[in-house]
Amino acid sequence: MALPGADKFVSTHEFAQSLDGKDPLHHFREQFFLPVDKIYLDGNSLGLMPRKSEIAIQRVLNEWKSMGIGGWLNAQIPWFYFSERMGEKIAPIVGAKPSEVVMTGTTTINLHSLVSTFYQPEGAKTKILADELNFPNDLYALGGQIQMKGLNLQNHLVLVPSEDGKTLDEQKIIEMMTPDIALIILPSVLYRSGQLLNIAHLTKEAHVRNIVIGFDCCHSVGAVPHKFDEWDVDFAFWCSYKYLNSGPGAPGFLYINERHFSKKNGLIGWFGYIKEKQFDMALQFEQANNAGGWQISSPGIIAAGGVEGALEITLAAGIEQIRKKSLHMTEYLIFLVKELLSQDPYSFMIGTPLESTRRSGHIALEREKDAYRINKALIHHGFIPDFRPPNVIRIAPIALYNTYEEVWNLVHTLKQIIDTKEYLQFSEERSIIS
Ligand SMILES: *Cc1c(COP(=O)(O)O)cnc(C)c1O
């Protein structure tokens, strides 16, 4: 059964239920642990726990119990090869060859190791181009890398400005790809507005100018299909705990285009050694001739079980199907907000680009006033959204486990919160984690 297009949407409760009835991915919801009596809309920050992740983590615990050190070679997935196996598993989800992806580190660690490989200031090319809307963490790390090279941070980190404080103009990014830029690091998706950048186009323009380009894909892998090889990006990195649902702080991933396999990992460690020789314990480091060369330490195998289970779910549903449903759900949310919440006194705005090619899996609901207190009221009603200052409520309807009815419920609860002015009873003071 085909789901109706946006031109056929209506705002009734029955319609929401009928969409769930026709949803080909609806049964994947049963594969997750859902928080009791809550409507979880924060899977873009931390995905819910897949049942298969619990099973895989339990298996790893049992292997540790029964085999001790033997698990490195004799476990169901030998721990020694676990990271490479997860790389092979995720490769089709990101459009890469199995040898180009490895599970390792975490986003920030991988950012550091990749930038120390690819940032080689030389001659007139000495600067890093990034953007002022990136998750500040990435800019901190880039600043650290520049300072480690003994260069001045102010002069060497160039940030693409945003006209509206929400989105980036790709033309502007391209204009700033000047001859003094050695490396470009951009997010695939802006964490606040949810704008999805055109990775293929930006990569092409960077390469025309002889600039290396890498992407932080934390907010797109698991929600959007990637074609790293086809787009020809130089490298990419991402976490596994947002749309991939692998668990809090679970190991991340990195992609290295195979033409760069001979480059040196900037943060060398023994897990990046040629696998067959790692235990020879030679004093000379010999880097693996694939993405595995960018590993540093022994992988955290217990947490890696979470990755194994989660990837199985994403592969079973299919990333193209996930994207299709995700776009349909966000389209439906945009429709309901426009229909029911855009006029005074509701006054909500959509801060995410409306074109489907320019958004990822979440929608930024904005309101000039009281957004923080409204978010608090939503939490009081059992919703789990998240808030990003100054005025953005992020809503992520996740294709694998959220329902259209939950989206309908959210919009109707927001309407009620404004109708009754109940948000006025919540303070404007922010808590530590939002
Ligand atoms: C989630 C996210 C991170 C998280 O970094 P960790 O090292 O996993 O804490 C970093 N950058 C971006 C853009 C993110 O969205």
TrEMBL record:
Domain of life the protein comes from: Archaea
Sections of the chain in a coiled coil: none
Residue ranges crossing the lipid bilayer per the database entry: none
Enzyme Commission numbers on file: 3.7.1.3
Hydrolase is among the record's keywords: yes
Molecular-function GO term, any one: kynureninase activity
Gene3D superfamilies cross-referenced by the UniProt entry: Aspartate Aminotransferase, domain 1, Type I PLP-dependent aspartate aminotransferase-like (Major domain)
InterPro entries: Kynureninase (IPR010111), PyrdxlP-dep_Trfase (IPR015424), PyrdxlP-dep_Trfase_major (IPR015421), PyrdxlP-dep_Trfase_small (IPR015422)
Enzyme class of the recorded protein, top EC level: hydrolase
Annotated pathway: Amino-acid degradation; L-kynurenine degradation; L-alanine and anthranilate from L-kynurenine: step 1/1; Cofactor biosynthesis; NAD(+) biosynthesis; quinolinate from L-kynurenine: step 2/3
Catalysed conversion reaction: 3-hydroxy-L-kynurenine + H2O = 3-hydroxyanthranilate + L-alanine + H(+); L-kynurenine + H2O = anthranilate + L-alanine + H(+)
The protein's required cofactors: pyridoxal 5'-phosphate
Keyword tags: Hydrolase, Pyridine nucleotide biosynthesis, Pyridoxal phosphate
Function: Catalyzes the cleavage of L-kynurenine (L-Kyn) and L-3-hydroxykynurenine (L-3OHKyn) into anthranilic acid (AA) and 3-hydroxyanthranilic acid (3-OHAA), respectively.
HAMAP family the record matches: Kynureninase (MF_01970)
UniProt similarity note: Belongs to the kynureninase family.
Subunit organization: Homodimer.
Protein name, per record: Kynureninase
